[in-house]
Amino acid sequence: QVQLVESGGGLVQAGGSLRLSCAASGSSFEINAMGWYRQAPGKQRELVATITTSGSTNYADSVKGRFTISRDNAKNTVYLQMNSLKPEDTAVYYCNAKLIIALREYYYWGQGTQVTVSS
Length: 119
Known about the structure:
The chain is mainly β and 119 residues long. The protein has strands at residues 2-7, 10-13, 18-26, 31-39, 46-52, 57-59, 67-72, 77-82, 91-101, 104-109, 113-118. Strands 2, 4, 5, 6, 9, 10 and 11 form a 7-stranded mixed sheet that branches. The protein is elongated and about 45 Å long.
């Protein structure tokens, strides 16, 4: 079991910045990758960015060049630095952790944190 606690959401004007944090506890030593997803009202949840334990990253095209995902393995924490925010970035942002145990994948989610970008 893994528990994920997000923080750092809020209200910001377009062009501003926010930094999200997600701290993992529990069986965090088994985490293979962590990431951020978001869900806007009336839309499906979508990938924002992921990062593996080795530091490999993957970004949605819509956030490339503006968002940066990073990870502190010692603290079992993943961050999402969001710059040049746009109104379309408004969504609930969810932290995600992927575990691989005995060749099976397990996914855990945080409770979500609201990000609102005003125009």
